[in-house]
From TrEMBL:
Gene3D superfamilies xref list: 3.40.50.2300
Coiled coil: none
Taxonomic lineage of the native organism: Bacteria, Bacillati, Mycoplasmatota, Mollicutes, Entomoplasmatales
GO molecular function annotation: DNA-binding transcription factor activity; transcription cis-regulatory region binding
PANTHER family from the UniProt entry: HTH-TYPE TRANSCRIPTIONAL REGULATOR GALS, LACI-RELATED TRANSCRIPTIONAL REPRESSOR
Keywords recorded for this protein, A-Z: DNA-binding, Transcription, Transcription regulation
UniProt xrefs under InterPro entries: Cro/C1-type_HTH, Lambda_DNA-bd_dom_sf, Peripla_BP_I
Claim: Transcription regulation is one of the keywords in the record: yes
Transcription in keyword set: yes
Organism, as annotated: Spiroplasma chrysopicola DF-1
Highest taxon in the source lineage: Bacteria
Designated name of the protein: HTH lacI-type domain-containing protein
Length: 304
């Protein structure tokens, strides 16, 4: 039987495409799975030879929310469809010594590209870029705006400004809701500027992720301040809001495409970031290794 790609091989082996990718790129898989894959390859014709595998290192944080994890899966499938072998490396929420040691051990000269998938906001992106400097021309950044790098980014401040202004056309009191772990200052600046422009008081609640206490604080601020709309972009605040569905507030969220709009609230508004353009452009860059560095600002739209 002729096996044409990773997906077909994974289906026969009874594993995920990521396992097949790790097999061809020299990653860690169980001895039993290694034997199973090798047995399949010996008895079937496989079009792609392991020695010709094009390796990509895909670096990403451990704390991706649901929407970004779905995007990561779409990105991974896109790369596998292009017949790349993927080494996925999860980095901790803070740049630590063992992160750097892990990368030094894994990254070698036998790879096509390094893709840093970093759509979350935090303070140590500089340290990662400093580490990747020797491989700058071979690196692609997703989620960060960095001059002189090949990068796909979102202008978070402008996005949130536009989103807030859209909401203010119908709501007079808007709460900005986030957690202490994902305190996105760019998002908040956009929200704050919009509130200042229409002369309403900005209101923010930073959840401590303590369960009942957070739910009580959220309920009180909605009632006491007559909140009409809540902006949130994380799973935990959305979960709390789903428990308060009896209160007449519009919930405004951010996601990466229309397929992820599945919230339990009757009057939800969603800012949809257009990642399709990024995936198309990414394939073009991968197929043209001599292309010069460029940055692409991703577009977005609001679904009512």
């Amino acid at each position: 039987m002729k096996i044409r790609n990773y997906k077909e091989l994974a289906k026969i082996a009874g594993c995920g495409v990521g396992t097949i990718s790790r097999y061809f790129s020299g990653g860690s898989i169980s001895p039993q799975m290694t034997q199973r894959i090798e047995a399949i390859l010996k008895t079937n014709e496989y079009e792609k030879k392991s020695e010709n595998a094009k390796v990509i290192y895909l670096l990403l944080p451990t704390n991706l929310n649901h929407s970004y994890f779905l995007l990561f899966q779409k990105l991974l499938n896109c790369l596998l469809d292009q017949q790349y072998a993927i080494n996925t490396i999860f980095l901790t929420s803070n740049w630590e010594q063992h992160d750097e040691q892990q990368l030094k051990l894994l990254i070698n000269s036998n790879f096509e590209k390094i893709i840093l998938f970093w759509p979350v906001a935090n303070g140590f992106i500089t340290e990662i870029l400093d580490f990747l400097q020797p491989w700058k021309e071979q690196s692609i950044l997703i989620g960060q705006n960095c001059p002189d790098w090949t990068a796909f980014f979102i202008n978070n401040e402008r996005l949130m400004y536009d989103f807030t202004m859209h909401l203010l056309a119908k709501a007079k009191s808007i709460l900005f809701l986030n957690t202490k772990e994902n305190d996105n200052k760019e998002f908040y600046r956009g929200y704050y500027k919009a509130c200042q422009e229409v002369t309403i008081t900005p209101q923010q609640l930073i959840l401590q992720q303590i369960g009942d206490e957070d739910e009580l604080n959220l309920t009180n601020i909605i009632i006491d301040n007559k909140i009409e709309a809540v902006i949130c972009y994380e799973d935990y605040p959305q979960f709390l809001l789903s428990k308060l569905a009896n209160y007449p507030v519009a919930v405004a969220t951010i996601t990466w495409n229309d397929e992820d709009i599945n919230h339990p609230w009757k009057s939800a508004k969603t800012m949809v970031i257009d990642w399709t353009e990024m995936l198309t452009k990414l394939v073009t860059i991968l197929n043209n290794p001599d292309q010069k560095a460029e940055t692409l600002e991703l577009r977005y739209k609001i679904n009512d």
